[in-house]
Description:
There is one protein chain. By secondary structure, the protein is mostly beta strands. The protein has one domain (18-157): Lipocalin. It is 8% helix and 57% strand. It has one helix at residues 2-14, and strands at residues 22-26, 39-47, 50-59, 62-71, 76-79, 90-98, 104-115, 118-130, 136-143, 148-157. It has a ten-stranded antiparallel beta sheet, with no helix packed on it. Strand 2 (39-47) and strand 3 (50-59) form a beta hairpin. The radius of gyration is 18 Å and the shape is globular. The N and C termini lie far apart (43 Å).
Amino acid sequence: xxxxxxxxxxxxxxxxxxxxxxxxxxxxxRSFGLPPDMNQTLTITQKDNRIELETKLIQPNNxxxxxxxxxxxxxxxxxxxxxxxxQPPATGKRTAVWLPGDRGIQVTDVTTAETPxxxxxxxxxxxxxxxSAGELVVDMYVDNPNISYEAKRIFIKQ
Length: 158
């Protein structure tokens, strides 16, 4: 009997992966580590181990949309990073996994930009979770030889 209860609990727990589907608007007042005049809206389509993401970056005189895909299988994939205007092109490798206990996801990007001083590698780690209030919380950690910083973005589902 105990084994049956444990098996059913494990199945229920495994089925409880967060659902990121939908349109999410950033709560600017509770987010940090952003350009002072930027807002974001995310449109997420999640199916099994694949997340398709459309990020709308909104600034006073500039609005752009960035599309991306995360494959949550722990394998490393090549991708072409989107770089801000007037920045050198970059190449990238990405790994995306479910967090332990399926609490959320972790996406690790390692990008290499060719600069006049030689190649610069940057590692960006994003951790996505859904808070107890139903908000999407994206913790981001960026490290390269020139800078390290942390940012947090909190999104409200529309």
